Structure formats: C-alpha cells, structure tokens
Input
Amino acid sequence: MKQERAKPNSTPGNPQSEIRIPHSDGFSRHDQKLEFILRIAARIFAEKSYHSTSMRDISRATGVSLAGLYHYCKSKEELLFLIQDNCFGRVLERLEERLKEVDEPVERLRLFIENHLAFFAANMAEMKVLSHEAESLAGEMHERVSGKKEKYTRLARKILGDVQRKATAEDKVDAEINLTVATYALFGMMNWIYNWYDPAGALTVSELVESITRLFLSGFLGSGRAEKLNFAQSGTTEPLSVWRAPTRQ
Output
C-alpha cells in the first residue's frame, strides 16, 4: 500500500504539523477529514488526557456528529492508535531516509536529535500524547505502536554505540557510560520539551538542537572538565519513601 504524507496546514508564527494518514488512492477528502479529526483529538487528549476525553468531546470540538466520527474510526482507542502509529511511523521514516547519506557517527547522532526535535516541535500536542498515553492502548494496536517505538529506540542505541566506539578508539580510553542509560537519558532530554519549549518563542528549533546536542555530548561544563569530576562512590543508594513509617508486609 502506498503511503503519502498529508499536506500540513500552517498559520503564521506556528510550525507545520506532519501527521501522515495511510491510504491507497491519493490524498482524498476522506483522508483530509480523518487528519482533521486526529489533529483535534490529539489536542484534546493533550489538554484533558485520553481517559478524561469522550467521543462527544471530540464531536463538539470538530463539529463532526458522533455518527460521523464512527464513520472515520471505530472507537476512541482507534483514534489514539492512529495518532501514535502515524507519529512514530513518520518520524522513523524521515530519520531512516535522512541517515542514508550520512556515515559519520557523531553527525548521525546530531541528525537523529535534529529529526526528533524538529518533528515534535511541529507536533507538540502529539508529543505529549505519545509521552503520557504510551500504555493506554491494548492488544494488537499496542503491539504495533510498541514495535515501531522499539525499532526507533534500537536505532538510537546503535547510533550512540557507534559514537561511543569511535570516541573510545580515538581517545584510547574506556567508555564509562552504560548505553541503556545513555539512550533513555537522551530521550528524556528531548521528550521533556513539550513542558517548556515554545516553537514560536525566541529560541529557534536549530538553537534547541545545537544546545541539546552539545549538552548531551560534552556536558554542561564541557568535555575538558569531565576528567576532573571525581564523585565519591558509596556503593549504596538510600531508599527514600514519602512516608515516614515503614511499610508493613
């Protein structure tokens, strides 16, 4: 089945959004209407949460009758699935295409960060939905989205592994950062932007990409100071509960 990217609508001062709807016969009126419904549904899910949103809420916001909504999707869960599946599919597809022309590990990592941040800066509501509603899907829909998410994570880990191996070979020192920690730390930095970043603000996406790439690779103080950090290793981590009394078994 051929997949085309839905043509985004844009307004002055706001980035374009890029949710893709799969179809086989060009960008039809059906696809345009479904994309419109998904965009509005993503905004409402981001504002109210998926579980607090009803199909009637989406009907009111879109101006589409309940019967009309069910013509385009079978359920609220299917709406959430389409938002997540299309977002992960689109960001992964764009990344794989762009990486074809790049071999150098650090440049591939910069491209990974740029692709992720640029995409989600243009789709902030969708980014919040992906972050908050990751476990709201079940069954086959959950498996399909999880499969794309795992593929994306494995690609990030491979790129980081290549960067680490190159740095180890060139600097003749052993790498100290666990790849699992590094991978999820990078996603944590990038995925948190929906809480504070304003795509229409003074900080451009390019500046955001530059800052996060440098911060991740060199640290806040810069790579020249890294060897001076000698943290005490106690070997234990104190368990800390919000409750003062010990938990009874």
Residues 1-16 have pLDDT under 50 and may be disordered. The CA atoms of residues 153 and 184 lie 8 Å apart. Residues 76-220 form a domain with the Tetracycline Repressor; domain 2 fold (CATH 1.10.357.10).
